[in-house]
Amino acid sequence: MAFKHARIALVTAGLAALLAGCAGTGGSTGPGGYQNRILTSSNGMTLYVSSRDSFRKSNCTDQCEKNWPPYKASPSDYNSGDFTTMKRDDGSLQWTFEGQPLYFFVKDAKPGDRTGHGIQGVWSVLD
Question: What's the pTM value of the predicted model, to 2 decimals?
């Protein structure tokens, strides 16, 4: 029985070391998830998509980008499931969900706000 406990302790220690090593990579596992059935960023802010975009291609630049800030990713972030990154025309990285570029709305003040849904018949939340 002592051998079995020692083996479990060794496996547990190895797993802990592996997880600690992964934690130091600086990446995240994805930008968020669902809150109240709406896709949100990791800080709970509502994420939007535009019908003017195409698969992994943002058409929101200049003034559009000021009102609808892209949900930026860093080079150390890595894809996770339906969350992937894409390169914008300016070279920066942006999160996508199932290939759809993700954005915030500048008038959403706090987590749970959805004030951008339906604007111009172009912007919508993912539910």
Answer: 0.74
